[in-house]
Write a structure and sequence with these properties.
Helix content is about 55%, strand content about 20%. The protein has about 150 residues and is of the alpha+beta class. β4 and β5 (about 105) form a beta hairpin.
Length: about 150
Amino acid sequence: MGSSSWGAELLSGLKPLSRVVLFVCLCALALPLWFAAQNTYRFIDGHRTNTEGYVHCESGGPCRGAWRLPAGQRGTGEIRGLSFAADEEFLTDIPLFAGQDWAVADRSDLLVRAAWEFVSTGIGTALVLWIAWNRSYSSGWRDEVK
């Protein structure tokens, strides 16, 4: 077998187009990692606050509102995790976990989403590499190269 790594073996067994597809798939898997990192950062960097005034919720859609941050800054934007009932009942002072341009009704939602995004990236990476590995050995390309 020699001193080559499994990655070199994998790439040497793939046709050139398959190498490009593998590279594109692995790059695409970086996107969920970016979202997971963003949610983790928001979990750490956000602040507990309350809504100012009423929130406006679209039927079956997102809720929008405003809130005041501890540093005196005012935040506005979509509030994830609120139901349409918050608009119907004219609720004020709804507790939030928020930053300048984002808010969630429940802070733990950020960690749950980040965990799912990390797990899906791991599963996706394993699946892409497994498919590439199987194609590498079943394509016969390796035999043609030697």
